[in-house]
Write a structure and sequence with these properties.
This protein is mostly helical. It is built from twelve helices and two strands, in the order αααααααββααααα. The chain has two domains: about 120 residues, no CATH class; about 140 residues, no CATH class. Helix 7 runs parallel beside helix 9 and helix 10 crosses helix 11. It binds zinc ion (ZN).
Length: about 290
């Protein structure tokens, strides 16, 4: 850890929080693009996506425009005690939580790249990490979207899959494309996504969670092999069960209310990827 300086830790965490703050806005502003077609958007007088993205953040209660000091991710919310500076009404901790966990997620990925490259790595030659940032951002967006609306928009996941196919083929040492392992990764991803795709097809999209085959395909691309991939897929089910079983017992949700599966898939991926875990590691825990 000696080269993983605290300054780097803070920088990466804060970079993640800034992205989190932007992704909060993006998730909300993408909604009309996902749920309405062009005609409906004109009818409902929804302003263009770019105009909505570029306008200044406002207090949700009094529409007070936030100034510089009120726009700092995490810190503004903390220092203002989670309240609007002007009207004093409470601002949802959701914004703060997304910023905070985006920061942690960035740190997790940075640690992954650090532990692969060791001391060669410093903030300015982390090209591989910075090129991974669009993928991390996309995963956070998918997480937020699935949690709120129980869908994973193609608008987000399809471009991410295309970008990722290029990403995994790119060799960041020689700065060239290397397609020699490319097909292995793609075949493995298809293999793991296939059962979910089949169930989704058979159930005509009604079976819980199986529509997430695209997400399983996408994330499998980044794993090192079958054992990592196994832990990733099982892990998603276990995390889902840990959440869903108590929720069912204590009556907070019914089987009919769909539990979004995407967030558990993403969480499981984070855990496996950050720490390079494989199914073998997991078995060892119980053997010792
Ligand atoms: Zn206000």
């Amino acid at each position: 850890m000696e080269n993983f300086f605290w300054l780097d830790v803070f920088f990466i965490f804060f970079l993640g929080a800034i992205f989190g703050s932007f992704l909060n806005v993006l998730a909300a502003e993408l909604e009309p693009l996902v749920f309405f077609n062009r005609e409906e958007r004109i009818k409902k007088k929804i302003k263009s996506f770019w105009k909505r993205i570029n306008r200044r953040s406002r207090c949700p209660h009094c529409a007070h425009k936030l100034r510089e000091g009120e726009l700092v991710p995490i810190f503004s919310w903390l220092f203002l005690g989670g309240r609007c500076k002007k009207c004093g009404k409470k601002i949802s901790p959701g914004y703060f939580l997304v910023e905070f966990f985006s920061g942690l997620t960035f740190l997790g990925f940075a640690y992954h790249f650090y532990s692969l490259k060791g001391s060669e790595l410093n903030l300015f030659n982390w090209w591989e990490f910075y090129f991974f940032v669009p993928i991390i951002s996309s995963l956070i967006l998918i997480f937020l979207f699935d949690l709120k609306h129980k869908i994973i928009p193609d608008l987000i996941i399809l471009p991410t899959i295309i970008y990722s196919l290029f990403y995994i083929a790119f060799d960041f040492n020689s700065l060239t494309f290397d397609f020699s392992h490319w097909l292995d990764d793609i075949w493995r991803s298809i293999l793991f996504a296939l059962p979910f795709f089949a169930l989704w097809l058979v159930s005509k999209g009604r079976a819980m969670g199986f529509a997430d085959w695209k997400l399983i395909f996408l994330l499998s691309l980044f794993l090192d092999g079958t054992m990592e991939n196994l832990l990733f897929v099982f892990g998603a089910f276990w995390l889902g069960a840990f959440y869903a079983i108590p929720a069912l017992i204590f009556g907070r949700s019914k089987l009919k209310t769909e539990v979004p599966f995407g967030p558990f898939i993403i969480l499981s991926f984070f855990i496996v990827y950050f720490f390079h875990l494989s199914y073998g590691d997991f078995i060892n825990i119980f053997m010792v």
